[in-house]
Specification:
With 249 residues, the chain is α/β, with parallel strands linked by helices. Helices cover 47% and strands 12% of the residues. Strands 3-2-1-4-5-6 form a 6-stranded parallel beta sheet, sandwiched between helices. Helix 2 packs antiparallel against helix 5 and helix 4 packs across helix 5. About 3% of the residues have low confidence. Bound molecules: magnesium ion (MG).
């Protein structure tokens, strides 16, 4: 209810926002990461389950899936994106006496991202909303943090069906020194578009990374509320689907 009131009060304000560019986050903002995670977690579960079985450790597949899902959430909250570290933690938890080889760790990370890339599709309103903004004359930008597997995030951006609509795409932490919520990637993105940060509005799903980063850079911010992150970082606007951007822009 609070969210609803906040959005409505902004929508009812006279005139729409005067920004020149709309910048987006990728995962869980433009593409459905829930589907991506389901695909990625199953791939890891299959491969790791097989490895553990070969080592004589019987693991319940459902339990392993829940473990991976919990770990994914926890690591994202801590900004720990390096999947190689995740698998060591996971094995430590489910089979503390088994040691995992570097080779398998790297294979799990590759399988995770490839399965994720295949399964995470755009939300139904992603393309129509981007089209709408493009037709309204906004420049479009994308700033997404590294997957910590060099080149993987760039690959995942390039395969998106909406890539051609963007004037600028940036992988923070690979094509810039710092990741969100540092102001650096946001400032680099604005500069690449030839704009000042205050001419840009940033749309993302993570209050502590996307909204905080946009604020640090002096950009306006929109939170797409996909789930509750229990964060007290407040965005200028809160929406629950991308199509609601048409009320703001
Ligand atoms: Mg995101």
């Amino acid at each position: 209810m609070e969210i609803f009131k906040k959005v409505m009060s902004k929508v009812n304000a006279p005139g729409k926002l005067s920004v020149k560019a709309v910048l987006f986050d990728l995962d869980e903002t433009l593409i459905d990461s829930v589907q991506g995670h389901i695909g990625a977690h199953s791939a890891v579960c299959r491969l790791l389950g097989q490895f553990l079985n070969e080592k004589g450790v019987q693991v319940d597949e459902k339990e392993l899936l829940v473990g991976i899902s919990k770990l994914d959430d926890e690591m994202n909250r801590k900004f720990l994106y390096d999947r190689d570290d995740w698998w060591q933690r996971l094995v430590q938890e489910v089979a503390p006496n088994v040691s995992i080889t570097v080779d398998l760790i790297q294979r799990l990370t590759r399988e995770y991202w490839l399965a994720y890339a295949l399964a995470a599709k755009p939300y139904p309103d992603t393309l129509p909303t981007l089209d709408y903004l493009k037709k309204k004359g906004y420049l479009l930008g994308l700033v997404s943090d590294t997957d910590k597997l060099p080149g993987m995030k760039r690959y995942r951006i390039e395969i998106q069906p909406f890539k051609y609509l963007f004037n600028m795409t940036l992988v923070s932490g690979e094509e810039t020194k710092e990741t969100k919520p540092s102001a650096e990637p946001f400032l680099v993105a604005a500069e690449k578009l030839g704009l000042k940060p205050e001419d840009c509005i940033f749309v993302g799903d993570k209050p502590f990374a996307d909204v905080a980063g946009a604020k640090n850079a002096g950009m306006k911010s929109v939170l797409v509320h996909r789930r509750d992150w229990n964060s007290d970082v407040a965005a200028d606007y809160v929406i629950t689907s991308l199509s609601e951007l048409e009320n703001i822009l």
